[in-house]
Design brief:
By secondary structure, the protein is of the alpha/beta class. The protein is 53% helix and 10% strand. It is globular, with a radius of gyration of 29 Å.
Length: 507
Amino acid sequence: MVEQRRGGEEEKNFTAKEQKIKQTLTPEQKVGERIDKIGAENVTAEEEQEMMNQLFAANPRKDGLEINSLMYRLLITPTSRGYFLSEHEEQRLPQDYKSRKAILRYPQAALPPWGKRAPEDVKLVFDEVRKQKEQKYFRKLSNKFEFTALVAADLRYDLITAIEQDLESGQPVLLRGFWRVGKSSILRKLELNYGEKNTIREDMVGAQMSNEQKSLAEFQKRLLSYDIASFTLQQDSPTAERADFNAADKLAREIENSDTDPADYLKNYLDRTGKTATILLDEVTSFIPRPDQLEYISRAFIHPKIKLVISLHYFPSQENLFAQTFKDYKSHSMRPLTTEELATIARKPTEGSPVRYTKDFVAALEDITGGRPWEAVYISGSMMGDEIYSKQKLIYRKEDLDRLMSFSCRQLMDSEGRGQRSFIKNIFDFYRSIYFVMSDEQKVLLEKLAESRGLSIAEVDPQIADYLVKTTAIIKDEKQGTYKINGELLRKAIVEKDVGNTPRNPF
């Protein structure tokens, strides 16, 4: 009997603790917990609407200021009501309102008591408050879908592990992939793994632009001089968060004016101190106009104490140059994301919110994007944004992506003015960048694959096709014995001639 009472007390205490934890949850977390308990796939439209009401319905106690502000700005015309004067327009009626003979419904300084406000006016204001609360919440959530979200996500560990194994064996690495497939995120992940203080990570576009007209000798004297100065100063002061800017700038100038190039200065420093460095160079493709500078970059940091990764786009017309320049590098290609990784991309930015993406949404996202992360991020975020296909809701299903695909490419492109930024326009710009660098033979194959929804492997030149597979633009289905376009949205853009007519120079 004593043991039974003790068990009862423990159960009672556990229930009390559980109740206390629930009381500390935010309203959003409580709704999310309820959705998870039911299962996102099983939540009915009525239940979802009830949850939306719980989160966003106008509350006179909490939303009193917004309600009264809208009441003062409520407009009516002889035939309708429901317009609201902008806060910025104060009490002045714009010309278009005057032409409708609009007047302020409550122009007096003090609003009438609640009981004397017309019920239809109260409903209009409450609906507007709810609408504004929804827009504010979902726009803020949508803005979390930045590409940096991939850094924290558990993505492509197989690729990262393979790269790290090569680096540890002293092998310089070339990271290959098209624009917006996640190369920069892989470099950022490597920087975190090796430690920011032990790493030099540089976007090389700026270096290329500032040195394009410089001689090779001048370029060698300037390449990464500040980054190397900052790195060595920080290594000598390990407790400092970062090197002092003025001190690093001064040292960089000294290095540039010495007889030693910055790359050699770093190598000498590492030999002298026994330390190691990781160097991650992004956007090196920008040096195509200067093959001599590109060749110098490829050999400048080869050293036993330097782990070197260079990110390089696929660029059909320049592949012979790349093969010769980086012949001693181990090459790794970016692969499409798996279904599980796409689920992480969709769900990571919404953690702590009640928004959920169902399994059929993730499966459809894979079909539409072909597993390319940038497209998956943008499409997932745009679902709750301001595009013509967007809907602000708690649970996103396959039907929401079907709505996106029901619009033509031109309709999707023309909708760009609806929001603060157009997710979908950025995706089509990416497709045009892909198309711009393709050879004529590759473009012909892409168009045939898009129109036919696939060609047998025997019908296709393997040299052309296998290169496109590396870019993730097409996939090779060994079981079906076919090549096909990777991603329904890309296929749609090719079929509707949206990418071929207006190719976009990525540089």
